[in-house]
Design goal:
The chain is mainly α and about 240 residues long. It is built from nine helices and no strands. Helix content is about 65%, strand content about 0%.
Amino acid sequence: MTVMLGRALWRLLGPGPSALSVPGSRAAGAALGRPGASLVQTVQNYASLSKKTREFPSQLDDLSPSMLKMDYKDLELMNKTNDVVRRLLSLEMATRKEKLKLKTSQLVEKVRRSPSDVGSTEVQIAILTAKIRNYQEHLQVHRKDRTHKRYMLMAIDRRKKLLKYLRRTRYDVFENVCSQLGIQYTFPPEYYRKVTQRWAAKKALCIRVFQEVQKLRAAERQKQKAAAAEKAQPVSKEVNEGTAV
């Protein structure tokens, strides 16, 4: 490990005094401009500077820590409790799951039709929106979590279907839901897959086979109509002869 660190420093700093090859020596620290620092500390400090800490915005940032949890915010007894109990039951001591539950209820309150509405199209869209944003925040930190990525894509597909239905049936409600929840609706692409030469040839063959089958069925129907007409002619002749007698 020490040899690898020495080689890394040799490539970065170039040739220098022989003291660089001796880890932990004061001469190594003096050669690097840091008297008294060891070679290992210098390499560790250099590696720590290369780390990039990124903070991603979250949908839970607008929730105040003094807000009560979902199960206790509507209780009248909470107005009579002391500050210690109120702090224990607030979002300051809550888990992420409890915060997400409160955030979902806030989104539902924006678009629900009535206080007793729990399953309308607008409510389902609000619940899926909270889930999708939670999955996006998780994947920004854990980029290789394929399970959560699959759940997010399934939720996005479900929300697209509900938005498409709501746009077709009640356009004014659709615009209100998009504006309240901050959703930007985009139309689906005309083709969902890349058009290749093989796929185009296969599609042309399928269309040709379909047309040939339709022609055969039309010819079969014509034969059946002709046979039915031939059977009906003798019956009509017998009826005419009976009336003439």
